[in-house]
Amino acid sequence: MAQTDSIRTLPRIGPKRAELFARLGIETLGDLLHFYPRAYEDRTQLLPIASLEVDQPACFIASVVTTPQTHRIPKPGQRALEVTKLTVADHTGRLHLTFFNAAYSAGKLERGETYCFYGTLTGDYLGYAMTNPLFEPLDATGSITRCIMPIYPLTAGLNNKAIQQAVFAAFAHCTPTETLPEAVREEYGLCDAVSALHEIHLPSSAEALDEARRRLIFEEFYTFSVALALIRARRGVRAVPPYETDGMEEFYGALSFFLTNAQKRAIEEILSDFRSGKPMSRLVQGDVGCGKTMVAAAAAFCAAKNHRQTALMAPTEILAKQHFDRLAPLFDGCGIRCTLLTGSMTPQQKLVRRKEIAEGRYDLVIGTHALLTEATTFQNLGLVIADEQHRFGVAQRAALLSKGEQPHLLIMSATPIPRTLALILYGDLDVSVIDELPPGRQTVDTFLVDERYRKRLNDFIRKQAEEQHQTFIVCPAIEESETESLKSAEQWARTLKDYVFPNLRVALLHGKMKGAEKEQIMSAFAAHKYDILVSTTVIEVGVDVPNATLMVVENADRFGLSQLHQLRGRIGRGEAKSYCILVSDNKNEETRARLKALCATNDGFRIAEEDLKLRGPGDFFGSRQHGLPAFRIGNLAQNMTVLEQAQEAAKRTVAEGALPPNLKESVNVLLQNGEFALN
Ligand code: ADP
Ligand code: MG
Question: pLDDT (tens digit, 9 = 90+) per residue, 165-188?
Answer without folding.
Answer: 999 999 998 888 899 999 999 999
